[in-house]
Amino acid sequence: MFVFKILNTNQLPKCLCYEQIRSLRWSSRIPKKVYSQAEFDENETLSPSSTSTHKEFVDMDSKKSNYPTTFSFQNKNNKVTDNNNNKHEVDTKILTLRKPKKKKNTTDMLETSIDVDGNLIYTKMHDNDARVAKILSNLKSDKTLRKEDSILLEGKRLITEALQSNCKIQYILFSKKSDVEELKPHLPKRGFSLYKMPYREMQMWSNLTTNPGIMGVFKMPEINQQQQFEIPLNVICDNIREPGNLGAILRTCAGVGCKDVILTKGCCDIWNSKVVRSAMGAHFKLRIQKLDWHNIKENLNNCNWFIADNNKIHSSKNSTVIIDKINSIPIESYDTLKYSRSNEITLVIGGETEGISEEAYSIVHELGGMRLHIPLANNIESLNSGTALSVLVFEIKRQIKVNT
C-alpha cells in the first residue's frame, strides 16, 4: 500500500491512502511524492520535535484522524472553501465538518442614572429581549417581591409618591422617554437603572388591564415610623381580606389624618398590588403596623374603644359566650356621641365577609368600649367597609375640630 502527499493546501488532509485518493475527484492534482508503507510508518513514530513533519500525514483509516474544522460549503456541487478562500472540490462523505461555536452574549445590564448635564442614561431593550424576562419574571410573584424586600409600582403618580417619600429606587422601566422626563425632578442622580422597552412587552408583564407605560421597582420602605397626624385616632383593620377594601381604608385613613393603622393576622398583604393601587400612595403617608391582639391590647389600653357594628349578630358565627358579650356592649348611633382630642380613640373596622373577630369583641367588652351604628334606609343591612369607615372617621374629625 502506498500513501500520497498532496500539494497546495493547508487545510485539507495531506496524506491519503491510495483507495481514498481514487474516491476524490481531484483530477487536476498530481502527487508530489509517493511514500512506501515503511516510510509512512517511520514518519508516524517521529519524536515530538518533528511535529510539523508529522502533521503532514493523515491516516484516513485511523479513528483518531484530525480533520479541519473551518470548512464552509459554497454550493451544492461539493465545493468547500478553506481559511485562505481557496475552493476545493471534495467528496463530502469523507469529511467531518464541525460548526463553529457561537459566541455567547455576555452583555451585562448596565446601571444607569442621570449625567451631569441632566440627560437620562438608559439601556434600550428590543422585542423578546432576554433581559426583560430576567427583570420582570420576579415582579409577577408577590412572594418573590417580599423575599427580596421589593415593591412594584405602576404609573407616574405612585412612583412620584414613593420618590417624594424617599423610598430607595432600584430601577424604572418605561416605553416613552417623556414619562421619565416628568419624574426627573424627583429622581436621584445615581444608584438606579433605567430601561426603555417596547410597550407591548410591558403590557404583557403588567398587572393592569391597560398598562400606564411606566413601572418602578423600589426597596420596601419602613412604614412603621412615626408620621404626622391630625387627630388622635387609631384604626384597627380586623379580617379585611379584600385587597380593594383594604386599599380604600388606607386611603381614607391618610385623608383624615389618622395616627396609626393596625392590621391583624386575618388581613391581606398590605403590599398586594391591588391594595397599593387602591390606596393611591397612602402607604407612604401612614404608620402601619401588623400586631396580634395581645400586643394591641397592651399598647392601646388607655384609649376609648369603638367597634363599627351594623347591629346584626350572626349566631351561627359566634359562640353563646361571645354573643352575650356583644349584647352587653352598648351600641349608639355614630352621630350622637361626643368625641374630643383629649381622649385617644381606637376604632375597629371588620371585613364584609368575616366581620369582627371574637378577640375584638372580648377586648372592647373588657375595656368598656362601645359599638357604633350607622342608621341605613331601604332595608340595607350594611355598607362597604371602606365606605362605613369614611362616614365614622370624618364625623369624628369634624367633632374634634369643632370642640378644639
From TrEMBL:
GO molecular function: RNA binding; RNA methyltransferase activity
BP GO annotations: methylation; RNA processing
Domain RNA 2-O ribose methyltransferase substrate binding, chain residue ranges per copy: 152-224
Keyword list, A-Z: Methyltransferase, Transferase
Alphabetized Pfam families for the sequence: SpoU_methylase, SpoU_sub_bind
Cellular component terms (Gene Ontology): cytoplasm
Identification of the protein by name: RNA 2-O ribose methyltransferase substrate binding domain-containing protein
